Amino acid sequence: MNHSSQEWASQAQQPGQPQYPPQTPNPYGQAPAPAETVIEVPNKRLHKYDKVKPGEQSVTIRQAGPGTNGEPLAYVHVPQDAPKGGRQARPPFTVSGPNGEPLSSVRSVGEGVYEVYGGDGAPIGRITRRGGRTLPWPRRVRWSVQPAQGGEPLTAEVGTRKAWTVFVLISPLYFVCWAVMAAQGAIWLLLGEKDEAKKEAAWEMEPPTWTRWRQSDGPETAIEYQTGRKYRLASSRLDHRLAYAQAVLHVWDRA
User: Fold this and answer.
1) What is the largest CA-CA distance in the chain?
2) Which of 54, 147, 148, 157 can pair with 140 through a Cys bridge, CB separation 3.0 to 4.6 Å?
3) Beta bridge partner(s), residue 224
4) Do the beta carbons of residue 145 and residue 213 sit within 8 Å?
5) What does the DSSP assignment read for the chain?
6) The pTM is what?
């Protein structure tokens, strides 16, 4: 599954990744993009992929950093007839560049494990999701990205321990507020004020979201997610095709 430096360098020049002046190749053999790239991955159409018109992309991955105009970087295609596999087995999907060139394909191999292949069909990595739980002891959702050429995997846990502690402590207050607002919404609905009822029902408390992917023995972050379906990528630390695949799976998981 190893790739030569020439192969990785040629892949780095594929459309679907912003083009920049040549730089010193990184440890993966790629000519990297700048230190950071911010992308946005909308989530609503992922859950409605079976309603997308034939021939249309399910999701458009766009640039979202300062000085950008939301230019498309890649398109995500989910088969309309793919079964709804749940969080441990999302449907297979492919990612293509802005000109339609194939970048990668992702498929579940069971129990939160996904194999990622390049546009030529060669394996480029594996993404793993381990579910969270409360008992017998608390555990956050954990993600892992293992490049095919080996090396230390990138791992991440969803939310920080402090954020989850605060979330658990204030949850009882949230449910009280939610019950009050739900009652108010029901009253507005009985009065025929549907818009006001929707406003009352729209408020919700989102669980902690901050997620950072990095090697266990290093402080550098390869992917960072805070909120808003936006991801900050350190392009020199991870193949952009793997980063796109992980971002899609992560935002799909959180929606």
Assistant:
1) 68
2) 157
3) 212, 232
4) yes
5) ----HHHHHHHHTSTTS---------TTS-----S-EEEE---HHHHTGGGSPTTS-SEEEEE-STT----EEEEEE--TT-----TTSPPPEEEE-TTS-EEEEEEEEETTEEEEEETTS-EEEEEEEE--B-SSS-B--EEEEEETT-SPPEEEESS-HHHHHHHHHHHHHHHHHHHHHHHHHHHHHHTT-HHHHHHHHH--PPPP--EEEE-TT---EEEEE-STTEEEE-GGGS-HHHHHHHHHHHHHHH-
6) 0.73
Is residue 16 within 8 A of residue 74, CB to CB? The reply is: yes
Nearest of 120, 113, 73, 118 to residue 230 by alpha carbon: 73
Q: Which residue has the tokens 């441990």?
A: 88
Q: State pLDDT tens for residues 216-243.
A: 877 789 999 988 889 999 867 789 999 9
